[in-house]
């Protein structure tokens, strides 16, 4: 990644979309400003149809 990006990046696996929810909430309310959450939307779009968009949350 160093040839493309000059920042240090850490990737953490948390185990699933329900485990990401605390991180998503902290990003939305401004507690985490330097974090990005990436997740798939396989079944979550059916369970929670009202997904709020945020530039630090990648679905």
From TrEMBL:
This is Uncharacterized protein. It comes from Vibrio sinaloensis DSM 21326.
